[in-house]
Write a structure and sequence with these properties.
Blueprint: H1 7-10, H2 14-35, H3 37-45, H4 67-72, E1 86-91, E2 101-105, H5 106-122, E3 130-133, H6 142-153, E4 156-158, H7 165-174, E5 179-182, H8 184-196, E6 208-211, H9 218-228, E7 233-237, H10 243-255, E8 260-264, H11 274-278, H12 285-295, E9 299-304, H13 315-328, E10 330-337, H14 341-353, E11 360-364, H15 370-380, H16 386-395, H17 399-419, E12 425-427, H18 433-443
Parallel strand pairs: 3-4, 3-5, 5-6, 7-8, 8-9, 9-10, 10-11, 11-12
Antiparallel strand pairs: 1-2
Helix pairs in contact: 2-3, 5-6, 7-8, 8-9, 12-13, 16-17, 17-18
């Protein structure tokens, strides 16, 4: 079955996509120059005019808009269309300062709903499906976007919003919902509640789930698939695997109807000898991706490192490896955990300049104990900002206070990402779905 809502866009050649990007960037810069004095001033301060932007190759010349700019220009300073042409407002929570407000024209809404329609069809959705949208509705853009995307596909849409889990289950069962849209942790909670109610997967009509705002652990993946009967993503590592091992695992995944994997090199096992490590079949994850692309039908995601992989000689070298993963078939990247968002913003800029165009998910791990921080830094090489070090010093000796402070730090980190346009978040749950659920509930409160 063809799973494209707009095949002329989704299947376009790289050359066509580049041509669109060039044309639209030039047009957009001219429009902003003519209609947004705030940004025009920033361009003038850099000595730029629209004539300096001739293609997407010139993108790096343009000045960045920071969170401070968004707040300084609040509420109307960055609006590029007359208000009479704007039909909707979306906003951040505003818990860390002024809200960041976005004004949508009907064209903007149409584009956003088109993107959501593509996601629904990519998951197998058609006009014969019943799509239950269990994201929060309101100022957050996700719920309304998937609601409109579901309409465009032609699904019968159930706009349940979040919460009231027993009612969610009642609608899934009574209205025969086939697609569920919500966060992974809430999907896991719905599945666990179904299990407690005595329901089995064969009694549930769901065939697909569209989950955002966080990723999930292997345990949660299995719970979602086992309780809801829908597909999830498997983790595959190559550091200790032979080609025959991967083919066997891929075969098992196919038998269990799992078509997506996160392809990782993995950490060297402590009992692996130097000889075994030197003779491994795959030196890097991109080598495994090349193999999987040639011999399997798996859809692949990969890992990325905002502060570079600790084994890489330089960030440039690390980005070259990342580019190879994209060329090997990675459809999106999930980042290594980080605690200072500035590293992530800088990484995104460098990746874009390198020509890496697939989506990124920001990896966030809540630090809920002082001991966890030491282990995490050893394994990830992530920097510890002063604010987090002070938090550990203040609360590290009190287990419950440390847990609350660590969750609060993760929430503030995610809110800052969202206010700076980063909406794809991977929460490293570490098999602690309750902690993840608390974070997600706070973000979308």
């Amino acid at each position: 079955m063809e799973r494209y809502y707009q095949p002329e866009i989704e299947c376009a050649s790289r050359e066509q996509i580049k041509a669109w990007q060039d044309e639209r960037l030039v047009k957009q810069v001219r429009h902003v120059w003519d209609n947004v004095p705030y940004y025009r001033k920033k361009m003038e301060e850099k000595g730029l005019t629209p004539d300096d932007i001739r293609s997407s190759d010139d993108l790096h010349k343009l000045p960045f808009i920071t969170k401070a700019d968004l707040r300084e220009a609040y509420p109307y300073g960055l609006v590029a269309k007359p208000l009479k042409e704007c039909v909707r407002i979306q906003s951040t929570s505003g818990t860390t300062g002024k809200r960041v407000v976005a004004f949508y024209t009907q064209h903007d809404i149409d584009l956003w709903e088109d993107c959501c329609a593509r996601a629904i069809m990519a998951a197998g959705g058609t006009d014969e499906d019943v799509c239950q949208v269990s994201y929060g509705y309101g100022l957050f853009t996700g719920g309304p976007g998937l609601n409109g995307g579901s309409h465009k596909v032609g699904c019968l849409t159930i706009p349940t919003s979040s919460g009231n889990t027993e009612r969610q289950i009642m609608f899934i069962k009574d209205l025969s919902a086939t697609i569920l849209c919500c966060t992974p942790s809430y999907a896991a909670y719905i599945g666990e509640t179904m299990k407690e109610m005595g329901l089995t997967p064969d009694q549930i009509p769901l065939k697909a789930g569209i989950f955002g705002a966080e990723a999930w652990s292997e345990e949660m993946r299995q719970d979602i698939q086992n309780t809801l009967g829908i597909d999830a993503v498997a983790h595959m590592t190559c550091v200790g695997s032979r080609k025959e091992d991967l083919l066997r695992i891929a075969g098992e995944l196919k038998r269990h109807n799992i078509s997506h994997c996160l392809a990782l090199r993995g950490d060297r096992p402590k009992d692996m000898s130097d000889e075994q490590f030197a003779s491994r079949d795959f030196a890097h994850a991109n080598d495994m991706m090349d193999f999987l692309r040639e011999h399997t039908d798996l859809h692949m995601a990969g890992a990325c490192y905002p502060e570079k992989h600790f084994e890489s000689f330089s960030m440039e070298s690390d980005l070259n490896h990342l580019k190879r993963k994209q060329e090997a078939g990675a459809e999106f990247f999930i980042s290594q955990l980080f605690f200072d968002n500035d590293y992530y913003y800088s990484f995104l800029e460098k990746a874009a300049r390198k020509g890496i165009t697939v989506p990124f998910c920001a990896g966030i791990m809540p630090i809920t104990s002082a001991g966890q921080l030491g282990t995490t830094v050893t394994l990830s090489g992530s920097s510890i900002p002063k604010a987090l070090a002070n938090l550990i010093a203040a609360y590290g000796d009190n287990k419950e206070d440390m847990r609350k402070a660590g969750i609060d730090y993760a929430i503030r980190q995610i809110r800052d990402l969202q206010e700076n346009g980063v909406n794809d978040i991977h929460i490293y749950a570490m098999n602690k779905p309750k902690t993840t659920a608390e974070i997600v509930a706070a973000i979308y409160r």
